[in-house]
Amino acid sequence: MELMSFQKLFQMTKVINSQFELSEILQVFVDAIAGEITQADLVGFFLKQPDGTFKGYKGNKLPVDITELLIDPKEDEFVRDILRNQSSDYISDTSVDLRLDQSKRQLLKIKSILGIPVIVDNEVFGLVFVHDFGKPMNITPEQMEVTEAFVNMASVAIRNIRMFEQRQLLMEKQQLLLDATKALSESLSVKDVLNTFFHYMRKASGSKDIGIHLYNEKEHTIEPYQLSSENVTMDEWKVKHREVKLTIENDRLLYEVITEKKSAAIEDVYADPRPNHKAFVSFDIKSIMVFPLVAKGSVYGVVAIPSIGKQRKYEASLLEFCQSISDATATALSNAQHTETLDHSVHERSIELQQANFKLEGLVRELEHLNELKSDFIATLSHELRTPITAVKGSVDILGKGILGDLNDSQKDLLDIAAKSIDRLLDQVNELLDFAKMENGKFELMYTEADFNEIVKESVHIVQSLINKKKLVLVVETEVDKDTVVRVDKQRILQILLNLLSNAIKFTPPLGVITIRTKFEDSLLTVEVHDNGIGIPFEKQKNIFTKFYQANNQINGTGLGLAISKQLIELHGGRIWFESSEGQGSVFKFTLPTGKE
C-alpha cells in the first residue's frame, strides 16, 4: 500500500509538472487527492484573495458551486490555526471540535475534515480541504502524510508556473516598452505622439482613464491638456478642472510630483491628506497614479491615471513600468510641441514675407516705370538741349574767328569762357544721352581695329592744355615692342581714357604727376591711370561707380562719368577697379580683351 501510494504520487507529480496553466494544475491536484490518495468525497482548493479571505477556486465534485464559497478566517477558528501555524490540521469529529465555521459545516454536512495550507515562497497561496459528505472520514496517517507530500509537490509546481508567468509578463512588458519607445520616436506631430502614448499607456496601466495635464510654472497651475476616457468627455473634463482650478498650492500630491520629479500612487485618496479631495469627489476618483513629464531637466506636465468608482492597489513594478512610458512620451511630446511651434512661427513669417514681397514687387514695378520715365525724360531733354547748344556753339565759334568783325581782347576772353562752358555743357548732355541709351538697352558698340597706343596719344593731346594749365607732369608708359592693335569701339575707349584723365587732373594739385601705363598679356590689355592727388575717402569708395554720385561735391559734373565708363568697359567684356588712399592719390585700372586669338 505504501509503495503503491508513492508510485501514484510520483506519477501524479509528473502530470502536474507537465501542466502550464494554474487552473489545470489545481484541477489535477484536487482530483488526484480525492480519487487516488484519500478516496474522499469532497476536495476543494480555496485561493487567497487580496483582502485575506479565501475564495473557492477548484473542486472535484461538490453539491454546491465552489466558486460561490468564501472562507473568512475571522469567522473560522480552524482556518486561523492553519494560517497561524502554516501547517496541516485535522478535525476528526466536528461535533466535538467546534473550531470550524458552523455555516460551512452544516452546508456541506462535514463530520470530519483535513485542512492543508499550500505554501508558495513562504506565504500561504491557498487552502486545501478534504472531507466526506454526511459521514466521518476514515483517513489514515499514511494518507495524510502522502496528501501533505503531494501538496508540497503541487506548491513547487505552482511556484514554477508563477515564475514562468512572471518571466513572460516581464518579457511582454519589455517588448511593450520597446514598441512604445520606437513608435514615439517615429511620431513627429503632437497628435501622433498623443495617440501613441494613450494606446501604449492603456496597455501598460490596464486603465481606460488617462489624462495629460500641463504645468504653468509662472502661475503654478495645472491645466488639462488631453484626455483618453470612457467615463467623461473632454469638455466635461475641462469644465470640472476650471471649477476646481488645481495648483501646486492646493494639491500637495501634485506639488510633490512636480517639485521632486517622482511618480506617486495612492490606493485610498480620501485617507491621504495630500490630494485635493474636492477635485477627486468631482471626478469620483478612489485611487490614482501620477507621473511627471520631464524634458530637458524640467517638469512641464503630469500624467494622471485615476481609478473611477472603485479602489485599486498598485504594485511597485506597475508604477515603474508606467513611469518608463511617461518618460519616453515626455521627450517625444516636448520635441513635437517645439517643432509645431517653430513650424507655426515659420508659417506666419512666410505669410508676412509673402505679403512684403507682394508689396515689394509692386514697388519694384513702380520704380521700373519711374526709371523708364526718367530715362525717357533724360533722353528727350538731352536731345532738346543738344540742338540749341550746338547752335550757340556755332555762333560763338563764328564770332571767335572774327568772321563778323574784329574783336577786342576783352570780347575774345569772354567768348573763350563761353566756348569752354558750352563744351563742358555739351559733354554733360552727351553723358546724359549715353546714360539714357544704356538704361533703355539701346546702346550699341561700334567695333573697329585700332592701335591702342594711338588712342592713348590722342587722349593725351586732348587734355594737354589742362595739364599745362595746372603745371602737371604726365608720364606715358606704353609698350612699343608688341602688337598693340585691339578690336574695340575706339570712340568709347577714348571716352573712358578722357574720363579717367579728367578726374586725375581735377583731383591732382599743381606740380603733381599723372601716369598712364599699359600692358599687353596674351589676349588681355591692362590699363592703369595713376595720380598723386587727394585720394578718395574710405567711406566714399563703395559708391564711386554709382550713378550720379560725386566724391567731391565742389567739383562740377553729372556724377555719371565713372558709372558710364564702368558700363562701357563691361560691354567690351572687361572690368574696372581702383585703389586709393586718402592724401596719397589713386590708381584706376581696367582690362579689355584685345579681340584677337
From TrEMBL:
<protein>
    <recommendedName>
        <fullName>histidine kinase</fullName>
        <ecNumber>2.7.13.3</ecNumber>
    </recommendedName>
</protein>
<dbReference type="InterPro" id="IPR003661">
    <property type="entry name" value="HisK_dim/P_dom"/>
</dbReference>
<keyword id="KW-0067">ATP-binding</keyword>
<dbReference type="InterPro" id="IPR005467">
    <property type="entry name" value="His_kinase_dom"/>
</dbReference>
<dbReference type="GO" id="GO:0016301">
    <property type="term" value="F:kinase activity"/>
</dbReference>
<dbReference type="Pfam" id="PF00512">
    <property type="entry name" value="HisKA"/>
</dbReference>
<dbReference type="Pfam" id="PF01590">
    <property type="entry name" value="GAF"/>
</dbReference>
<dbReference type="InterPro" id="IPR050736">
    <property type="entry name" value="Sensor_HK_Regulatory"/>
</dbReference>
<dbReference type="InterPro" id="IPR036097">
    <property type="entry name" value="HisK_dim/P_sf"/>
</dbReference>
<feature type="domain" description="Histidine kinase">
    <location>
        <begin position="380"/>
        <end position="596"/>
    </location>
</feature>
<dbReference type="Pfam" id="PF02518">
    <property type="entry name" value="HATPase_c"/>
</dbReference>
<dbReference type="InterPro" id="IPR003594">
    <property type="entry name" value="HATPase_dom"/>
</dbReference>
<dbReference type="InterPro" id="IPR029016">
    <property type="entry name" value="GAF-like_dom_sf"/>
</dbReference>
<dbReference type="InterPro" id="IPR004358">
    <property type="entry name" value="Sig_transdc_His_kin-like_C"/>
</dbReference>
<dbReference type="InterPro" id="IPR003018">
    <property type="entry name" value="GAF"/>
</dbReference>
<keyword id="KW-0597">Phosphoprotein</keyword>
<dbReference type="InterPro" id="IPR036890">
    <property type="entry name" value="HATPase_C_sf"/>
</dbReference>
<keyword id="KW-0902">Two-component regulatory system</keyword>
<dbReference type="Pfam" id="PF13185">
    <property type="entry name" value="GAF_2"/>
</dbReference>
<keyword id="KW-0547">Nucleotide-binding</keyword>
<keyword id="KW-0418">Kinase</keyword>
<keyword id="KW-0808">Transferase</keyword>
